[in-house]
Amino acid sequence: MGFFNKYRKLVSVVDGECKPLSQMSDEVFSSEMLGKGFMVCPKSNYFYAPCDGKIENIAESKHAYSILTEDGIDILIHIGVDTVSLKGDGFDSQVVEGQNIKSGDLIAIADLDLIKKNGFETDCAVIITNPEKITKLDFSYGTVLGGKDICMSFKISS
């Protein structure tokens, strides 16, 4: 029974600065229309899994990944703003759909310079898309290391 009372955590997906999701320039993210989460302003091209789970979906353009945790939590990782327009240019997926992953596993390499050169923002959103399943959210904002530092913790709703 105590298993359900434990806090779960999401670590940063990239080295950078963890900030409130409300600071994303894209209203779809900042308004929490897609769910609850945080953003990271990346300082590295290497993107990591924020938790243990299974890769459920990889966007054809390799800029977005969805992970399903063992607890049934759906997590979306979206690299950049409007980067779907790059059609995969500058993104190198390191995982495949259906793959089981551990927190901190490398999932993608993104060429931030190429993204910026094409006029896109590199901010990365990490969102729980089924927030009705969680409660008691806590965030840790500031400088973070990808795959290591906790950005968000929460409890699973009972």
SSE layout and pairing:
Layout: E1 8-11, E2 16-20, H1 27-30, E3 36-42, E4 46-48, E5 53-58, E6 64-68, E7 74-81, E8 91-93, E9 100-101, E10 106-110, H2 112-117, E11 121-128, E12 134-139, E13 142-144, E14 150-156
Antiparallel strand pairs: 1-14, 2-3, 2-13, 3-11, 4-10, 5-6, 5-9, 6-7, 7-11, 8-10, 12-14
Walkthrough of the structure:
This protein has helices spanning 27-30, 112-117; strands spanning 8-11, 16-20, 36-42, 46-48, 53-58, 64-68, 74-81, 91-93, 100-101, 106-110, 121-128, 134-139, 142-144, 150-156. It has an eight-stranded antiparallel β-sheet with strand order 9-5-6-7-11-3-2-13. It has a three-stranded antiparallel β-sheet with strand order 1-14-12, with no helix packed on it. Strand 6 and strand 7 form a beta hairpin. By secondary structure, it is mostly beta strands.
